[in-house]
Amino acid sequence: MTTTNTAGAAATDALASQNPTIAAFDSRARIRAIIGSSSGNLVEWYDFYAYAFTAIYFKDAFFPGSDPTVQLINTAAVFAIGFLMRPIGGWVFGRVADRFGRKNSMLISVLMMCLGSLVIAVLPTYGQIGLLAPILLLLARMAQGLSVGGEYGTSATYMSEVALKGRRGFYGSFQYVTLIGGQLLASLVVVLVTLALSDKEMSAWGWRIPFFIGALAAIVALYLRRSLHETSTAKTRGAEEAGSMLAIWRNHRRAFLTVLGYTAGGSLIFYTFTTYMQKYLVNTTHMDKKTANLVMTAVLFTYMVVQPLFGLFADKFGRKTSMLIFGATTTVMTVPLLHAIGSAKDPLLAYALITAALLCVSFYTSISGLVKAEMFPAEVRALGVGLSYAIANAIFGGSAEFVALTFKDWGFETSFFWYVTVMCAIAFLTSLQMPDSRRSGYLQGDGTA
């Protein structure tokens, strides 16, 4: 422990000579910085997932019809379109973060998410304003997608730059602790509201409550983020390459494509076993809605608390090792696990099977932002991380529910299992050629905190 602390302190002193802002980051300041950036991350993802967990209740309000699967496809399509805004958000907020500072970017993104959530909370239904209702719902989701697209890259960059060398896997894991925490909080709020209200009340107005809560929580996160220290320097912000996509494509193309490769599989399987699982348990396993919500709440809590352990594993054995384990285990286990979950009538068995799948995914999610941040220099880091992640996440993660439900509607549900497996195999092959951050990586002393 003493050796690790000494090495960390030496690294901090070395970076302090390059970046004066590092002086503000003693141990307590680093913890406060992680909490401040994480709070906004949690709120952003809570608001985004509140839609996924309440869609099963408000589908009639915006998409009237008689076929519940078709209604879910419509709500999933709006969810997916929110993802399609992420690349734009990754580009816009990445440029802001690299050229004007990580803090400014994070403040703007959480404010935008607050406004999107508030709009959904007060939105009239199809019965009140007709076709304008789903259109306004779509616009609000697009604003939230833009915000989340910017949030991921900037918060991943900030948390990676704040963390001490040798502990970056541990510190970086808290991005997914709060990301999953946002999902968990959304699920927990929905569970509590459904326990307090009848299904009729939930469908009529109860689904709005989680969105009001999200808008209020965003105001708290905005306040906490105002006290954050900036991690980028005037030198990197003023560099000619700062926030330049052309510079990334010319000088960091391999890193960009590598991130695309493993994010495609990582995002797809993440959303398969988190947001889609609620619908899968109801539609395929035939659990009632409340039981499915309780199962997913327990799953997400377990998944959240283990992230730092997998981050510590990556610190000890290397990020590349974790990525290879992730790719290999998910390629082998996805099909049998999804088959088993589909026939699991016992809620405890369903919990165990979904948790097993997400433990495999944890080798990736615990270090997701960090492995991307280490591949780009400070002047293009937020843009490189945010845009590459957002593109792959929008195409493969955002469409997961829509593709799964469409396959089910066509009568070929198991084809989706193989689709996920193929993408995880691609993630494994991509990880084979990624650099080992223990020997190289732009966070090894680039003048950031």
Question: How would you describe the overall organization of this protein?
Answer:
- The chain has helices spanning 2-18, 27-62, 68-84, 86-100, 102-122, 126-129, 132-162, 168-196, 199-204, 209-225, 234-237, 245-251, 253-272, 275-283, 289-317, 319-342, 347-365, 368-373, 381-397, 400-410, 413-432.
- The chain is mainly α.
- Helix 3 packs across helix 7 (132-162) and helix 4 packs across helix 7 (132-162).
- The chain is globular.
- The two termini are 22 Å apart.
Please provide a brief summary of the model.
With 449 residues, this protein is mostly helical.
Structural class: mainly alpha
Mean pLDDT: 83
> What Rg is obtained from the alpha carbons, in whole angstroms?
21 Å
Helix content percent band? over 70%
Report, as a whole number of angstroms, the end-to-end distance. 22 Å
Low-confidence stretches: 1-20
Number-wise, the strands total: 0
Give the helices and strands as they follow along the chain.
HHHHHHHHHHHHHHHHHHHHH
Global shape = globular
Number of helices: 21
DSSP strand content: under 5%
Main beta-sheet strand count, sense and barrel state: none
Topology:
Elements: H1 2-18, H2 27-62, H3 68-84, H4 86-100, H5 102-122, H6 126-129, H7 132-162, H8 168-196, H9 199-204, H10 209-225, H11 234-237, H12 245-251, H13 253-272, H14 275-283, H15 289-317, H16 319-342, H17 347-365, H18 368-373, H19 381-397, H20 400-410, H21 413-432
Helix pairs in contact: 2-3, 2-5, 2-7, 2-8, 2-10, 2-14, 3-7, 3-19, 3-20, 4-5, 4-7, 4-19, 5-7, 5-10, 7-8, 7-19, 8-15, 13-19, 13-21, 14-15, 15-16, 15-17, 16-17, 16-21, 20-21
